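Re-running GDSL esterase/lipase to confirm reproducibility after the cluster update. Everything else is unchanged from the original entry.
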Amino acid sequence: MEGKGLHILLSSLSLVALLAIQSTDASVPAIYVFGDSTADVGNNNYLPMNAAKANFPFNGIDFPRGTPTGRFSNGYIGVDYMAKMYGFKRSPPPFLSLTAETIKGKIFSGVNFASGGSGILDTTGNEIPMTLQVQFFSTVVSNMTSHIGPASAHRLLSESLFLISIGANDLFADFAQFGPQNDTHKDEYVAILTSKYEDHLKKLYNLGARKIGIFGMGLLGCCPALRTKTPSGDCIEDLNLYARKFNRATKSMLHSLSSSLEGMKYTFGNSVKLWSNIFQHPSSYGLKELKSACCGGGRFNGETPCMPNATYCPNRQQYLFWDMFHPSQAAYKLTARAFYDVGSLRFVSPITFKQLAA
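Result of re-run:
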């Protein structure tokens, strides 16, 4: 996408059109999404062939019209359901899909910058790391400001939501390189991650972000791909410990950051705590299969990816995992519900995602 063409198009939009865009039933004017494959709605479709992709069957089998959109899921993902709860149809469109011919004001109601395979660190993955996602957002802010002026842009962004789901690939990468490590190694690496994460959040704040919703790590060691690496098929607790350390450090960082940045509000969804509850009481969440992926191959369907020649389960609503690494649509839906409303306070802090929009 050519920045010059985007600038020309945005300059042609009128302030009246912008106000019309904001006059919806949504509780916030816009949603901006950052993260990895748990939040990607199709950005990776526009990357070279070696990038992580999900724009083929059987991904999207439960999406409207059975469309494989690039979501790493059988249907919707967590940011889709969260957007629905705020009054939108689904997640905003992927940034890389926007062109001078199609953007038509969508920039003012939200953009999704997430990229499957990306991480907090620039060295994690070969897709669109968080650093570049923030740069893309900076381009959006520049164009927005040039059209409606800095005051109006600041007001719109300060009332908008910023949803972030990232960090898993950084932890997977360290585990893949070094294997199980002692607490000192984990603590040092988590400190590096949260420091870089803090830098990203500060840049977003300086660009106008004020309401930030963070999806924390889940039980990474319980993914089907990881279960295949243990003779018993149990979770790899070393990775789960990593996830817990990362969540604690992130919560502490967010608390400190919000104390120093005027006007910043945040909520942190503790996926480890939620998933632990799911494993203890699966029937309460309508789930039956917690170990095997619905789509894939090999042991637990976790040894090969979900491809057009893979097998997939008919009872997808009962599966926690869609493929070897990613949750099912059902799991994403219950996660969004658990984080959104007042009853979710045992899984989020210091406020709910619903309260974040207030």
